[in-house]
Amino acid sequence: MRPEKHNSRPEISPPKSTTQLPSAPTHPNGDAIQRIERGSELGWRAQSAVPLAALVALAIHLLFSKSAPVVETHSYTLFFYEIVGVSIVLSIAQRFWMRLRSWMRHMCPILTAAILLLGLWDIVTFGFQLLPMPYFPGPAAVLRNLINDRALLLDSTWHSLALLLSGYTVGVLVGLISGICIGWSTPVRYWGMPLLKVVGPIPATAWIPLAMVVSPSTVVSAAGLIALAVWFPVTMLTASGISNTRASYLDVARTLGAGRAYLIFRVAIPAAVPNIFIGLFMGLGASFLTLVVAESVGVKSGLGWYVSWAQGWAEYGKVYAALIIMAAFFSTIMTLLFKIRDRMLVWQKGVIKW
């Protein structure tokens, strides 16, 4: 018998590490969640950043506003005192509310930078007057106009919201229908794509002279222009998503006996939802621009009308006040659309970031 050959190489086991590596988080924001859970409360630097920035901005304002009237500075001073008070209350509340603690961790740097920018704005405009007046008023004058014209600004915001939602809704509905038809049907695509390529790239604001002649009222013309601005991106992206539906999805559905309606509404449209949301976001941005231009031309109410009216009277503090309301107004609508997208496309969370 031949003796069995034994492996003369000794088995080398990997060295045992004294430290245990942490497991990778399964959630996209797992690291942040673990840090929040480990920390019982915010550090003193994070808690004091916002009130200290408010006190610095207030000191800058008081330094340069000695010759200003009391009415000009009273509201602005109270504004910073309110920031300090709210910051103290939130610092106490975050000890007992973990979600508030997480929000403060995320927002404290942004809020601190925004408050310091107010101080820089005061230095540039009211302090050293590096920008010509009255075109660039200080933040105190803008806040005073916000308070004095709050009723008119609220009414203008309400009219702008109604006009925007009506035009945007019509544009989305027409864009979805035309996009689905162009993306699914070859004959419709043959006739629809040339029209889309010719009419779509023309800015909606270029149709203002024709819209004011054809439409029965300025409100209807403004809503129609907003709908036209929304229609092009929604139609283009919807048609692209429908036509690019995977053939394997359609073949499997046909094999199982699905009809045309099932293929369109249960296969093609769900597959095109990411593209549709991109079109909705693009249309929303175009609708903001068209809304402001349309209101400043013919509509007798709304934020665009308010900006045009204030500019006519050289009240640039009111113009900046309206711009602040526009920023808050448009960003709120955009945030709501993001929330709807996150709810409908929850399966994309952690896979696609846009």
Describe this structure in words.
With 354 residues, the protein is an all-alpha fold. The chain has 2 domains: 39-133, no CATH class; 149-347, MetI-like (MetI-like fold, Orthogonal Bundle). The protein is built from 13 helices and no strands. The chain has helices at residues 30-38, 44-64, 70-93, 98-127, 139-148, 150-184, 186-199, 208-214, 218-243, 247-255, 260-297, 303-312, 316-344. 31% of the residues are buried.
* Count of domains: 2
Order of helices and strands: HHHHHHHHHHHHH
Distance between the termini: 72 Å
Percent in helix: over 70%
Continuous helix count: 13
Instruction: Please outline the major beta sheet.
Output: none
Unreliable stretches (pLDDT < 50, length at least 5) are: 1-30, 32-40
Number of DSSP-assigned strands: 0
- What's the architecture of the largest domain in CATH terms? Orthogonal Bundle
Secondary-structure-based class equals: mainly alpha
What is the 3D shape? flat
- CATH homologous group name of the largest domain: MetI-like
Mean pLDDT: 83
As for the CATH topology of the largest domain, it is MetI-like fold
Radius of gyration: 29 Å
The amount of beta strand, in percent, is under 5%
CATH class group of the largest domain: Mainly Alpha
